[in-house]
Write a structure and sequence with these properties.
Layout: H1 2-26, H2 33-51, E1 61-66, E2 69-76, H3 79-90, E3 97-104
Parallel strand pairs: 2-3
Antiparallel strand pairs: 1-2
Length: about 120
């Protein structure tokens, strides 16, 4: 029996890690209806702020919110647009942090949907 554990120790530890991580993820409490509504409202407010910008075009930016943390994804056409999107989002009341996964579009076309990342 001791030999079994010595030989299979890496597999047993890997399996135990998967079980523990799964249990940790499963133990996260689901969001309440009011939290979901608040997140949607915050994302909508950020979208409105982006779309109100008179200089930059943010119609291809998606906004997600989670308890004040805002995530921006999609694509824009300039580095200045990325900076402005983050600035505008961070100025919305209720936003505690902004992360961006914005992609820079070249020549107004992403050549079939891939930016090369």
């Amino acid at each position: 029996m001791i030999t079994f554990f010595r030989v299979h120790r890496p597999r047993l530890l890997a399996g135990l890690s998967v079980v523990l991580l799964t249990a940790a993820c499963a133990s996260t409490a689901p969001k309440s209806t009011s939290r979901i509504q608040a997140d949607r409202a915050l994302a909508g407010t950020v979208e409105n702020a982006l779309n109100a910008d008179p200089v930059h075009y943010f119609r291809h930016v998606d906004v997600q919110a989670d308890d004040g943390k805002v995530s921006l994804s999609g694509y824009v056409w300039s580095n200045d647009s990325i900076v402005q999107a983050k600035r505008l989002a961070s100025q919305v009341p209720g936003v505690t942090s902004v992360s961006d996964q914005l992609e820079l579009e070249r020549n107004g076309s992403n050549a079939g949907g891939s930016s090369g990342h």
